[in-house]
Amino acid sequence: MARQPLKILAIIDRLDQPTAIVRVTQHLSLAAADPNIDLTYIARRPLWLVRFEQAWPKRKWMRWVVNLIESVEMRRVDRRILREAASVDMVYTINTPAQQLNRKIQQGGTLVVVDIIDAIWLPWFRRFDWDQLEAMLSEADGVICENRFALEYLQQHNPRTVVVADVPQLEDFDRLRDKVQRTDDKVTIGWIGGPNTADSLYGVFPVLERLFAEYPQLHLRILGATPDNLPRFEKVRYTCLPHYDQEQLITEALQMDIGIFPQYDVEESRCRGALKTKIYMAAGLATVCQRVGENADLISHDQNGLLADDDRSWFEQLAYLIAEPDQRQRLGDAGLQTIRERFSNADGWASLSAALQSFHQQASGD
Q1: For residue 75, what are the CA distances in angstroms to 78, 94, 98, 105, 316?
Q2: What is the pLDDT of residues 281-310, one digit of tens each?
Q3: Which ranges of 46-166 would DSSP assign to H, the alpha helix?
Q4: Which CATH number fits domain 6-167+344-364: 3.40.50.2000, 3.30.70.2190, 3.40.50.150, 3.40.1190.20?
Q5: What is the value of pTM for the model shown?
Q6: Rounded Cα gap, residues 236 and 220, in angstroms
């Protein structure tokens, strides 16, 4: 008799976050073809609610409307999750702070695996409903994280913790690669992220000012932030795209020439994944990253990207790439090859599906 596929319900906190794509939605076609797993998903904050939150005025005295609608909708979605969890083998939650919901799911006999993105045990993250993180970790039937740095902390609370590396949307980049052209009259430095990570650009603020004063062909393209999130640039010529979907991210990245990932040498940076770097590399960009955390493992300096430690090295690496288009091409090609060899969608799904099946086997004693 054929073995039944493992039924998994994935829970995404919100669909507009890259985590939702990287951990779930980009794998749906591969999951559908996998005879061992039956994967479905639910977003606790549906896309319409996310768009409503983004469009509603930011004034604090007006936010009660959004908060009320969000509370009502999430209670409705959580009831749906509990109903559907009763008919699956495992619920896989991706950066979702819902410990009480997890307990109810487990009380019904369904396994719960939690996927932790970023160093959410640090004080800044705690205010986003992560006050029960340690209980969530210790009670989970398995824990997944992005890299070895996060693993060190998470294993203290649950020994059943494994690393599943993020993979960029390589196949989607390949689909659009020949349809997007870079311009020859300017050099575009790109940064992709969100409003809560744009503060990292302060780390290269003086460097960018010097570069833009020296090279008139430069343009800085910022995805995921508004001018209010950025340094008060003086000479830097920049434009912002505050919100973007998957296709916009890919199209924008393919038009860039250089991707940058500045960071501070603190625990949050060390535990942060290198998805931003992998997106740049999948787009074929020459990439300059801070020599911190996973980036120092991923980038072989001057082979598939460049690493920087301080203002001087940031200036030198970027000036080198601005002045040498052949070197931009060389490093961009090598970075893309790294992604093809190690971080394809198939690689990501193989790693994730193996981890989920392993947790199920451990729980069932197989």
Answers
A1: 5, 18, 11, 15, 52
A2: 999 999 999 999 999 999 999 999 999 999
A3: 47-55, 63-85, 99-107, 123-126, 133-139, 148-154
A4: 3.40.50.2000
A5: 0.92
A6: 7
